[in-house]
Amino acid sequence: MELLFDQQHTVKVQLPAKEGNFSIRELLPWIRDKLLRERPELFMQGDTVRPGVLVLINDVDWELEGELEYQIAEGDRITFISTLHGG
């Protein structure tokens, strides 16, 4: 993942103001458009992360938190981990 994000291990972001919270569904394209430096196809497929990218919300698998529908709260930590390795 660091390769896609300009070799940054951690990125702290301030999401734009809007009424209500951002969902992960809204966060993913925002990340793609604002933070990715190259190869967005390695991060997203359609409207979600591509297979092989593990998503954690506050260190919990996003599948237990509602995946794309999860409403992001201030202070949440969203982690993306690639489980794919080149050969």
From TrEMBL:
Alphabetized InterPro entries for the sequence: Beta-grasp_dom_sf, Mopterin_synth/thiamin_S_b, Urm1
Which parts form a coiled-coil structure per UniProt? none
**Which top-level group of life is the source organism from?**
Eukaryota
Which residues get modified to 1-thioglycine? G87
Q: Where is this cross-link: Glycyl lysine isopeptide (Gly-Lys) (interchain with K-? in acceptor proteins)?
A: G87
Location in the cell: Cytoplasm
Q: In which pathway does it act?
A: tRNA modification; 5-methoxycarbonylmethyl-2-thiouridine-tRNA biosynthesis
Q: Describe the PTM.
A: C-terminal thiocarboxylation occurs in 2 steps, it is first acyl-adenylated (-COAMP) via the hesA/moeB/thiF part of UBA4, then thiocarboxylated (-COSH) via the rhodanese domain of UBA4.
Ordered alphabetically, the record's keywords are: Cytoplasm, Isopeptide bond, tRNA processing, Ubl conjugation pathway
Q: Name one GO biological process term.
A: tRNA wobble uridine modification
Q: Which Gene3D superfamilies match?
A: 3.10.20.30
Annotated signal peptide: none
SUPFAM superfamilies on file: MoaD/ThiS
Supply the PANTHER family for this chain: RURM1 PROTEIN (PTHR14986)
| Function summary | Acts as a sulfur carrier required for 2-thiolation of mcm(5)S(2)U at tRNA wobble positions of cytosolic tRNA(Lys), tRNA(Glu) and tRNA(Gln). Serves as sulfur donor in tRNA 2-thiolation reaction by being thiocarboxylated (-COSH) at its C-terminus by the MOCS3 homolog UBA4. The sulfur is then transferred to tRNA to form 2-thiolation of mcm(5)S(2)U. Prior mcm(5) tRNA modification by the elongator complex is required for 2-thiolation. Also acts as a ubiquitin-like protein (UBL) that is covalently conjugated via an isopeptide bond to lysine residues of target proteins such as AHP1.
Family label = Belongs to the URM1 family.
Official protein name in the record: Ubiquitin-related modifier 1
Q: Which gene encodes it?
A: URM1
